[in-house]
Give the backbone structure.
Amino acid sequence: MAENALSVTLKDRLARYPIKELERKRTKLSPEKEQAFQKWYRGWADRAGIDQDPDNPLHKYDYRGAFKSGQGPEKSSEDGLYHWPSEFKDDDHPNRFVDGVDTKTGKTIKPKDE
């Protein structure tokens, strides 16, 4: 099965930076909060045009963490898309490293090949 260009680019990009283990941190919510989260998420999914399933592994994001912290996405004036807070990204999120910065921590990261 051939890999698509996005997955190859992501693999190349992640291979350049030091990631020890993939961490799939998912915030746990009480049943009552989970119900509120599902409603909140569906609203954002509709608005942002993203998958209705917050647990889809392709998201590579802890939406419950954003919900619990009271954060949501902001619409970018540059590309018109919704962008979620970086602190809830999975370690292998395709936009974790941007211009040599780890968006989860805000630290400048040198690629492995430098």
